[in-house]
Specification:
About 40% of the residues lie in helices and about 20% in strands. By secondary structure, the chain is α/β, with parallel strands linked by helices. The strands form two sheets. It has a four-stranded mixed sheet. It has a three-stranded parallel sheet with strand order 5-6-7, with helices on both faces. α1 packs parallel to α2. The longest helix has 14 residues. The radius of gyration is 17 Å and the shape is elongated.
């Protein structure tokens, strides 16, 4: 996996969730003076996973995550993976359940996508399907708004949403 597959994940809870989910994390960067229960939990998790922690000036975090609220914490982590629609259906089959899939069209705001991922997780959905084009993807804004759900809900990104819905109907 090349370095281009790594992204900066800003924010205390998003970084905690990335560490908990077991995604590959190259390093965690903390602003000098960052404190609190979330920082303590983060340090424990990073240590238990063997992830190096760097303490830097807060301005360095501003430079690494421009225009994104980092709360004194960021992680250089593997990008969130998209899955194939077949994996979403496979998860339902492996649980002996009828597939419950949230299909989203026209969601262009990452915050809204993140909120819908939270809803999907709470409803017990096997996954979410989003179109490849003209739609928000799994970026930092979606991760932050999802309150951790982004780490637990399968997201399939498809070229043709209408075709994917036909495939879902047939399953």
């Amino acid at each position: 996996m090349g370095m281009d597959a790594l992204r900066w994940v800003p924010g205390r809870n998003p970084v905690l969730e990335v560490l908990k989910a077991g995604r590959r994390v190259e390093r965690v960067v903390l602003a000098r003076g960052a404190r609190g229960p979330a920082v303590d939990a983060l340090l424990r998790l990073a240590s238990s996973r063997g992830v190096p922690v760097e303490w830097v000036d807060a301005r360095e975090l501003d430079r690494l995550c421009p225009g994104r609220p980092h709360q004194g914490v960021a992680a250089r982590a593997e990008a969130l993976p998209y899955v194939e629609l077949a994996q979403v259906l496979g998860l339902a089959r492996s649980r002996g359940e009828d597939p419950l899939v949230l299909a989203l069209d026209g969601i262009q705001d990452q915050g809204n996508l993140g909120a819908l991922l939270r809803v999907a997780e709470a409803a017990g959905a096997h996954g979410v399907v989003i179109p490849q084009r003209r739609a928000a993807g799994l970026g930092a804004g979606a991760a932050r708004a999802s309150a951790g759900a982004v780490e637990h809900v399968l997201v399939a990104r498809v070229n043709n949403l209408a075709r994917a819905l036909q495939q879902l109907k047939g399953s």
